[in-house]
Prior knowledge:
Blueprint: E1 7-8, E2 13-20, E3 23-31, E4 36-42, E5 54-58, E6 66-69, E7 72-81, E8 88-89, E9 97-102, E10 104-108, E11 110-115, H1 133-143, H2 145-152, H3 156-168, E12 172-177, E13 190-192, E14 196-200, H4 207-211, E15 221-225, H5 231-242, E16 250-254, H6 260-263, E17 268-271, H7 273-280, H8 286-289, E18 294-297, H9 309-319, H10 324-329, H11 333-339, E19 354-358, H12 365-370, E20 377-382, E21 385-390, E22 405-410, E23 413-418, H13 421-431
Parallel strand pairs: 2-4, 5-7, 11-12, 12-13, 14-15, 15-16, 16-17, 17-18
Antiparallel strand pairs: 1-10, 2-3, 4-9, 5-8, 6-7, 10-19, 19-20, 20-21, 21-23, 22-23
Helix pairs in contact: 3-13
Amino acid sequence: MLLSNVIIADTGREVNIRVSNGKITQVCSSAVGDMATIRIRKIEEESRDGAIPLSRGVEGCVPSASLTHPCSRPFLRAPSQEGNFISQKALSNTDDLQINFTNAIVFPGLINSHDHLDFNLFPQLGDKIYNNYSEWGAYIHKEYENEIAAVLKVPQALRSQWGMYKNLLCGVTTVVNHGSGSDIANKLITIFEEKHDLHSVGFDKRWKLRLNNPLKRNLPVVIHAGEGTDNAAKDEIDKLIRSNYLHRKLIAIHGVAMRPQQAAHFKALVWCPASNYFLLNKTAVVDELKLHTQLLFGTDSTLTSHWDIWEHIKLAQKTGLLSNEELYKTLNLNSADVWGINTGELTPGKDADIMVAKSNGTSSSIDAFFTLTPADLLLVMHKGNIRLVDESIYPQIKDNLNTNYSRVKIGDSFKYVEGDLGGLIRSIQTYLPHALFPVEVPGHE
C-alpha cells in the first residue's frame, strides 16, 4: 500500500536525499542488506563533493570502515552509538551535515492552502449547526463579543506569528494566508500571498468591484464561496461566476453548496472538512467536484477547527470521499501546481521542504502517513533549513546550527523548534493571560 512521494525506510532499504543551497539535488533508494535508513545530506556548495567527511555511525546502521553507495560517495565511519541521527564535519573550511534516521518515513512538507494566521488564538466559537457562514458570523459577534474582543487586543503581528508556529509544529512548510498581511519578520515557513483575497459575496460589500479590478487581473482570486447548506449559499456561487467579467482565475474556499456544473468555473477548490462539519455538519461533495476542478486542502483557523492539521487529515480520510492518494495530493502536488510554487515533491530541483517522521512500525506508507501526529515528527526542513528536530537528535546537530531553538513538549515528546517560542507565548499572554497553547515550554508558567 504505497503513496507517491512517501518513502518508508523498512528492513533492507536505504534512502539518500542530498540538499544543496535550499534545493533537493538527489533522491534515490536501494536495497542494502539489513539496513533501514533515511539519510539526508546537506551541503551548501556542490563543489565540496571532493571532500571525504568523517562521521559517526548510529543504531540501526551497519558500522564499517567505509560505505560505498550508488547514490553517494564513500564515508569513513566510527563504531555505532545509540541514537538515530548523526552529524559530520567535512574535511574543509565549512560544515556539511549528514542525518540518518531509522524506522522512519520521509515526504514533502505539507501545503496548507487555507488559514487565517492571525485568527489562531481563538477557541472554536459556535454551539449549534448553522445554515451558512453569514448566520454563524452574526451569531458569534453577538454571543461571544467579549471573547472576540479579548483576542483582538493581542497585536496582529503576534497573532500571525503564532499562526505560523501552529503550522510549523505540524510539519506544514507552506501556508496560504487569507486576509491581511502576515507581518512576520522572521518567516520560518513559506507564507504564500501571491493572490488576490476577497472574503466572500456576503461579507465583502465591494466584492464585485474588487473582483473586476483590472490592475490585479493576473492574480488568482481566492474567496470563500458556498459555505453553507441553504439556497443562499448555492446562489452566491452563481452570482460570483456571473460577475467575473474579466474571467479571472477563481479559487474557492469551502464550496459546501457547490455543484459540479459550478465547479467547472473554478481553477481549484480548497476543501476544509473539519471547519465545515463544525459549522454546518456537512462538507463539500468533493467526490463529484474532483472531476471538474483541482482539489486542495486547508485547515481554516481555530475559530472553527482543531489546531492540528493531522486531525483534519484523519477526518478527511474517514469521509471516504477521496482515495488515499487523491487526499494526499491535495496536500502537495495539487497545491504546488495551483499556487505555482517549487515544492510538493521529493525531486531534484525542487525546494528542500522535507519532513521525516516515525514510521510507527508499519511497512505501509498509507498507514505510516495517515496515523501521524505532531509528536511523531523527527525533522522539518524548509528550503534546506532545519526548522524543527526531535529531542533525540538535537544534541548531535546543535553545533551545526547557527540560530537559537526553543525546547517544547508536544504530546509525550520534546522538540526543538527554531526561534523563541517561549518568548512569543509570554508576549501573547501579557495581552491575553489565559491563552491556551497546544505545546508546553519547560520552565515557563
